[in-house]
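Reopening this one. Same input as before:
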Amino acid sequence: MSSKSSRRLLVTGAGGFVGRHVSQAVDRGAFGDVEVVEPPKGWDIRDNVAVSDFVEEVRPDHIIHLAALSFVPRSFEAPRETFETNCIGTLNLLQALKNVRFSGRLLYVSSGDIYGRVPEDQLPVNEARWPEPRSPYGASKVAAEQLCLQSHRSDGLDVLIARPFNHVGPGQGAQFVLPALAHQVVAIADGKQVPVIDVGDIDSTRDFTDVRDVVAAYAAMLARGMAGETYVVGSGVERRIRDLLEAMCRIESVTVEIRQNPAKMRPTEQRRMVADATKLRRDTGWAPLTPMETTLMDILKDARGHHE
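Same output, byte for byte:
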C-alpha cells in the first residue's frame, strides 16, 4: 500500500496490456515512491470535459499517456475514431494539464510504427529517421507527438516521447502475432488442435522486447530522460517470427506442420525491422534484461490459462 505522501502517477490506458504491467512494476517499486491513479471506468479521453474534470480532481505529479487505439489493421477500418482517440484525446489531456498548471513530467508513448517502410540498408532505426507512417495509426501517433512537443516548446511542458517497437509478453491480446501463434501451439500440445498451424508471413523479422523491459524503459525515462527528447525503445535484436514459433514448439515439445494461409499475408508489410536504442541507453542506462525464452514461456503460460 502506498503512503499518503506518494507521488501520483496518472496512467491513461491503465487497463490495457502495457498499463497493467506498469501497475505491477509500480507495486514492485520500479517507479520509486509513487501510486498509480487511473481514470474511472467508462472514462473517454475523447471527452474534453471528462478529461478536464478528472485532471482537476487528481492533480497528478507525473503521467504515462498510454491510452490509444493501437491495433494497426483496426486503424484502417476506423481512421476517424483512431485520430479522435490518439490525437484529439492527447490534445484534451494537454489542455487539461495546462489548465491546472501541471509542473510534473509527461511521458507520451508513441510507436515505432510511425517510421513506415524502412529500406533494409537503412536499418537499424533510430530517432534521427524522419517518420513516414503508412497507417492511420502511425499518422495519429506522429500528430500526437508533435502536439506534445509543441507544448514543450511553447509552454515549457516537461515531456518525453517514447517510440517503442514490438513489445510482447503475458497479457497481450490474441490478435497480435506471438500470442496468436502461442494459442495454436498450446492447443496442439493439449490435444485440442491437429498439429497444423496456419500462419501469415512468418519469415519477416521484428525487434521484439519483453513488455516488462519496455515498462522499465518508461521508468528510466521518467527518472533520467531529457525533457523534450524522443527515445526509441527496442532490444536491438532482429528476430524472425518463424524462429520464435519454432522455439515455442520446442518449449511445448510438439512437432507441427506450418501451413501458410494466403488470407493472413500482408504483402506491403515491412520484411525486416530492427531498432537502435543507443540514445536511451546513453541517457538513462536502460537495457533489456529478460531472455526471449522467458518471454515465450510466459506467453505460452498465459495462452494456456485462456484455454483452461
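So the earlier flakiness isn't reproducible anymore. For the record, The first strand starts at residue 7 and ends at 12.
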